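Have a close read of this protein, sequence plus structure tokens, and explain what the tokens say about the fold. Thanks in advance:
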Amino acid sequence: MRSWWKGKDVFVTGATGLIGSWLTKRLVDEGSNVVCLVRDIVPKSNLYMNGYYKKVTIVYGRLEDYNTIERALNEYEIDTIFHLGAQTIVGAANRSPIGTLEANIKGTWNVLEAARDTHLLKRIVIASSDKAYGSHDKLPYKEDTPLRGMHPYDCSKSCADLLSQMYYKSYKLPVGITRCGNFFGGGDLNFNRIVPGTIRSILNNENPVIRSDGTYIRDYIYILDAVDGYMHLAEKLDDEGIHGEAFNLSNEKRYTVLELVKLILKLMRRKDLKPLILNEAVNEIKNQSLSAEKARKTLGWKSKYDVEAGLKETIYWYKDFFGLKAK
């Protein structure tokens, strides 16, 4: 059967990142003509390690550069945008908020404004985050939960989310918004994050480090589930009735950080190692979880991977990445 994506002209920001590299691979495999906005060459990114950078058109530039984005959309006659590019490291956002605000807020309005200036666009998926909700006592978050990020990264995602809604309300751009929890999967090179950091520590025979007190609650979504959800939403944007809508993507299972680390230790058969709890986390939301009821009912999407299944594939990927025999 012919893929729905065959022949689509797709623009992906953040293509060297965790989700961007896997999404790009999937789009290429399904026959899309993919154009990637790339700021830095990251040789160990999936985009380069799997050779898919040779199968896409690369536009070098920054989200903060409107002219580069506008040129790419018009020159390559883009009909679909996945805006995934962002500064996503919470610690970096706390240390230097200006760079995060410029990339995440200005970068988003640049993409949306450039899209408004072209008449070829049919669908735009904007990657928001569960962090856009900020902190609320009532869990799980639903899509009508107010957006009130109070810290640099969280606030930047609240703003980007609201800008996306504004461009639909004011200019009728065919926008769909995703809000996901913490992504995990092979290809995440930010080892300050709990999943890759824990796996690397275990492979190095070291006790895994937890920056918080270990009790923070989070959603964790496997990267292939997220890719499927993003593409599913894009396909559904042919229905004008969901333009401007946001959708939580989640397997609806939540874990404390300590529970997740212990699960990884179990899967890697290293219960002899003990988590080192630093209790140093600042400006981070304590508890978050998402309801995916709207995505199930409106989009017909649901998660295919539970956390354990996703972790098994992730562990395998990192063993291969570090040149270890996968078991």
